[in-house]
Write a structure and sequence with these properties.
Helix content: 25-40%
Shape: globular
Number of helices: 5
Radius of gyration: 15 Å
GO molecular function, one term: oxidoreductase activity, acting on NAD(P)H
Pfam family, one: Flavodoxin_4
Largest sheet: 6 strands, parallel
Number of strands: 8
Strand content: 15-25%
Protein name: Flavodoxin
InterPro entries: Flavodoxin/NO_synth (IPR008254), Flavoprotein-like_sf (IPR029039)
CATH class: Alpha Beta
Length: 158
């Protein structure tokens, strides 16, 4: 069994596209995080909901994707960049698992802001794990971009 897990949350499918490319190239297991309450598909409404949740430190209940990570050694964790940090469903996932001794590799999609605090926020929640450099993608991801990044961090492709 491949001991790599790709966990992600995606509202507008950008992060999902990146997660699927990582899955394709690593042969890992993919897992989508689904909160119990979905966000509005209207950008302005969703922005207000999300900003409010982040400012309160709210972590939504996950109805899918929160299963055990015990069988995995390497975890790619993906999120959109929402107001310079993680999407609340990803924070829920991080707070509910023990990452001690695991390798954690962040990835994000953004509209021009890069990682901002995402890598630091993941490192804080996964303080007893090995954190490798992540990838932040603005716009559509290319397979070559992911291949180059995986090689740069020393990940052995399937």
């Amino acid at each position: 069994m491949n001991n790599t897990l790709i966990v992600y949350y995606s509202l507008f499918q950008n992060t999902k596209s990146l997660a699927l490319e990582i899955e394709k190239q690593t042969g890992g297991t993919i897992r989508e995080l689904i909160p119990d309450k979905t966000y509005s598909f209207d950008y302005n409404t969703a922005s207000k909901e999300i900003r409010n949740e982040i400012s309160r430190g709210f972590c939504p209940k996950l109805i899918s994707g929160n299963e055990s990570i015990d069988d995995y050694q390497t975890l790619f964790i993906g999120t959109p960049n929402w107001f310079k940090t993680l999407a609340p469903p990803v924070m829920s996932f991080l707070k509910q698992h023990d990452f001690t001794g695991k390798t954690v590799i962040p990835f994000c999609t953004h509209g021009g802001g890069g990682f901002c605090q995402i890598e630091n926020d993941i490192a804080k929640e996964c303080s007893k794990s090995i954190i490798l450099p992540g990838i932040a993608v603005n716009g559509a991801v290319t397979p070559e971009e992911v291949t180059k990044w995986l090689a740069a961090i020393g990940y052995e492709l399937k």
